[in-house]
Amino acid sequence: MEPLIIGINSFYRKGGKTKILVDLIEELSKRSVPVAVIKSIHSRYDLEKEGIISGNEIKDTKRFRIAGAKTVIGVTHKEIIKLKKFDENTRVLEGIKEVSDDVIIVFLEGFKHLKYPKIFLIQSLEKELDELRKIKNVIAVTTTNREIEEELMEKMDKFIPIGEIKSYILETLKKHLLSELPGKNCGRCGFKDCKSYVESYISGKSSLKCILEPDINVKVNDERISLKPFVKDVFREINFALIHTLKNVPEGSKIKKIEIKISL
Question: In this structure, what CATH number is given to the domain that contains residue 163?
Answer without folding.
Answer: 3.40.50.300
